[in-house]
Amino acid sequence: MSPRRLLAGGALTTAIGILIAATAPVLGTAGAERTRPQELAGGLVSLLGWALLAWGIHRYGRGEEREG
Question: Is 27 helix (H, G, I), strand (E, B) or coil?
Fold first, then answer.
């Protein structure tokens, strides 16, 4: 996978994770029993996005895109 695709995928995955966490119900309202699991899922997806971003930045900085 090219560094540019890793960067784009990492940015998209991070945005999706933030979207998942941000749409969790507020504690004390209807549906609040899924707040914690939804925030956890969003956080894990965001963490995966950050890992993809870091890997893409690392590969882009090393110039591996020019080789393949």
Answer: coil
- Quote the pTM value: 0.81
Phi-psi region of 7 (alpha: psi -120 to 50; beta: other; left: phi over 0): alpha
Q: Compute the distance between CA of residue 40 and CA of residue 46 in angstroms, rounded to an integer.
A: 10
Look at residue 68 and tell me whether its pLDDT is greater than 80. Answer: no
Structure tokens at 15: 């945005």
- CA 54 to the chain's CA centroid: 11
Q: Which amino acid is at 41?
A: A
Delimit the domains of the chain by residue range. Answer: 3-62
Task: For residue 34, give both structure tokens.
Answer: 């899924």
